[in-house]
Automatic annotation (TrEMBL):
InterPro entries in alphabetical order: At1g61320/At1g61330-like (IPR053772), F-box-like_dom_sf (IPR036047), F-box_dom (IPR001810), LRR_At1g61320_AtMIF1 (IPR055357)
Domain F-box, residue spans: 30-60
Organism, as annotated: Panicum miliaceum
A Pfam family of this chain: LRR_At1g61320_AtMIF1
Ranges for domain At1g61320/AtMIF1 LRR: 102-231
Residue segments, region Disordered: 1-26
Protein name: F-box domain-containing protein
């Protein structure tokens, strides 16, 4: 058997080599992209195209989109590690500062869910909540939760006034699920409702009968509705039929 110097290949070595197709494209997945690139891609998609991303790949929709479109949940009790009745002003302002800091990091990115839970007892928090809701409006948020109900909510007359003026037609149309607690609804006369709202939950919300009728009449694809402890002057009448899973609690 002939000896071959180290580093030299024989004809048989070339014969055994696996052929390489120079035209083969390297495999790449959306999940391999950096998170900031995913954010940028998702933020540029029109709403309809954004909804169609599920057909691209399972990895993209279930994996990448979870990181590209995060759920931001802020609970003052969890953040400050104390019970609601033990909250001090220092806790509240710590909460405000931390929320603002997180939202600054997500500026310009798509945020699927924004949930805020804090004991609203004074109107001094309203400007900060306005800022957070405004962030949701520009961040393509689909699920908005404002849980502002104090422990002894029946002792408080003040309600947070929902800032309809921060939403345009496009941002309003993105909202699909909305839970509002201890909020006042006073929609402007030109308001056309939430066209894609599927699951509204209103708890201790201050709203007159006519405004609520107008809002619900323009929600054409309701799947579920809960109205909990919202005082209405008279019976509720809407133009479109309410979903079978409608909960009305006094």
């Amino acid at each position: 058997m002939a000896n071959h110097p180290t580093g030299q290949q024989t004809t048989s070595d070339y014969d055994r080599a696996t052929p390489t197709n120079i035209n083969t494209r390297p495999s790449a997945r959306f999940c391999d992209l950096p998170p900031d690139i995913l954010y940028r891609i998702a933020s540029k998609l029109p709403p309809k195209e954004f909804a169609r991303t599920s057909v691209l790949s399972t990895d993209w929709f279930r994996g990448c989109m979870r990181s590209a479109c995060p759920r931001l949940t802020f609970d003052v009790v969890a953040m400050c590690k104390c019970e609601m009745e033990d909250l001090l002003y220092t806790h509240v302002w710590q909460f405000v500062s931390e929320v603002n800091g997180v939202l600054r990091k997500h500026h310009g990115k798509v945020v699927e869910t924004l949930q805020v839970k804090i004991n609203l007892e004074h109107s001094i928090l309203a400007p900060h909540i306005d800022t957070w809701v405004g962030f949701a409006a520009i961040s393509r948020t689909k699920n908005l939760v404002l849980d502002l109900k104090p422990i002894r909510f029946w002792e408080h007359d003040y309600r947070y006034v929902f800032p309809f003026q921060l939403f345009d037609r496009e941002s309003i149309s993105r909202l699909q699920h909305m839970r509002l607690s201890f909020v006042s609804l006073d929609p402007p006369s030109q308001f056309k409702g939430f066209p894609n709202l599927r699951k509204p939950h209103l708890q201790t919300v201050q709203v007159n009968r006519k405004d609520l009728e107008d809002v619900l009449s323009h929600c054409c694809i309701l799947e579920w509705l809960c109205i909990d402890r919202c005082r209405l002057d008279d019976e509720l009448t809407v133009d479109s039929p309410l979903p079978p899973s409608t909960l009305l609690e006094s």
